[in-house]
Design goal:
With about 180 residues, the protein is an alpha+beta fold. It is built from four helices and seven strands, in the order βααβββαβαββ. β2 and β3 form a beta hairpin.
């Protein structure tokens, strides 16, 4: 199992995967145009020639990006494919010197295992909600917003580090 940046030839398999979850109400559907336009955001996990999963890293400025369209084929759930994708996205985010990653999810337990914590969706930038406008659940959204701070001392969107944030060391002051 390896990861690589997505290619245009991956679009049919990525569409099948994402839109399968969309039909179940677990993701927003995507079309070929959207994927073609954003293919550089996507990383895939493969086993030989077989696509096992995908995820996208979508930038919202010099410090922040969203994890989008994280999906693994059903028969690969529990195999580490999702974790492998998340590790690849986090490495990419660190290469771009981002301070934080966020996501909207129905699986906060998975993200918690990856070092994310739940935040109020109002703490995230409004432009991150642009996809929400076309979602059938927009007026009654049940997705959970999660955030992971990547840089020591990062203060993204007014969210301050806590001792639980991985990689974040909050100094403790002791009286002299």
């Amino acid at each position: 199992m390896t990861t690589r940046k997505a290619r245009m030839t991956d679009i049919p398999a990525i569409l099948d995967l994402i839109n399968g979850y969309a039909r179940a109400g677990l993701m927003l559907p995507r079309n070929e145009f959207e994927l073609s336009e954003g293919i550089r955001d996507f990383t895939v996990v493969v086993d030989g020639d077989r696509l096992l999963g995908c995820a996208a890293l979508h930038f919202y400025g010099p410090a922040l990006a969203e994890v989008r369209s994280l999906a693994v084929i059903p028969e690969s759930k529990g195999s580490g494919a999702g974790r492998t994708l998340m590790n690849a996205l986090e490495t990419e985010a660190q290469e771009f010197e981002l301070d934080a990653l966020f996501a909207f999810t129905y699986v906060p337990v998975f993200f918690a295992k990856m070092g994310y914590r739940e935040v109020e969706r109002g703490e995230l930038p409004l432009k991150a909600w642009k996809d929400c406008l076309r979602c059938p659940k927009f007026q009654a959204c049940d997705e959970i917003a999660v955030l992971k701070l990547l840089s020591p001392g990062a203060q993204v969107l007014g969210v301050r580090p806590t001792p639980e944030d991985p990689l974040i060391q909050i100094p403790t002051f002791r009286p002299i």
